[in-house]
Amino acid sequence: MEVSVPLQKMALYKEGQLVKTYLVSTSKFGLGDEKGSYRTPTGKMEVAEKIGSGKPAGAVFKSRQWTGEVIKPNTPGRDPIVSRILWLNGLEPENKNAYARCIYIHGTAAERDIGKAASYGCVRMKSKDVIDLYERVGEGSKVFIVRKGLWRDAEKEREAAAPIEVIPPVEPLALAAPLSPVDPPAVKPVWNELSIFKSGADVLREGGFDTSYLDVKPSTPSVSVAPVQLAP
Q1: Which residues pair with 119 in a beta bridge?
Q2: 159 vs 153: CA distance, rounded Å
Q3: 165 exposed, middle or buried (CB, 10 Å; 0-12, 13-18, 19+)?
Q4: Do both 54 and 126 map to the same domain?
Q5: Per the confidence metrics, is the pTM higher than 0.85?
Q6: 92 lies in some domain
Q7: N or C end of the chain: which has fewer CB within 10 A?
Q8: One domain, residues 33 and 104
Q9: What range defines the domain where residue 220 resides?
Q10: pLDDT along the chain (232 residues), means of 10
């Protein structure tokens, strides 16, 4: 929960997401934590106790006990604590006296004053709103009372003020000039002639041996292969 004193508004969050907002009323004497000051403390607190489960809207509490009386909103001359009580415990030096000072979030019969600073230190709410809040939060829930606007409102303002990135249009690609035809390269023959058969004397002669005693003349190739060209 977050209570904005300037806005007189409470925001309820769950896992960082805004669930609901309510109008409230903080102290008409300003902000502070001094005993007997009737001021609303600021900073981080928690719900220490929940009081009033099952009681009717408008149930009047005195010293956190239901008196048995039920009154309507804005009853003339009446300004008691009604409907539900969330008793706060301070978690920081600036609000260390909150629990001892009996600082509550509670319903009020003076609903006409909701939305403006009119309490004696507590955070007041309309009966229907405090009952709704009571059902949504548990003991140990954190409460932040701040001297500025609500966190989520500030986030929205930052998002709205963020510059929008403009992506320039993509220039059309220029078409390349058509390729000119290229004459295929001339194919050279892999070989010109290939002798398939050689005599044994030819092999010896090529190896440097004397073949005169063999009385054999060098052989003539018996098979020739025409030049072969590869297809382009």
Answers
A1: 27
A2: 10
A3: exposed
A4: yes
A5: no
A6: yes
A7: C
A8: yes
A9: 189-226
A10: 98 95 98 97 98 98 98 95 99 98 98 97 98 98 96 61 65 61 53 47 62 54 50 52
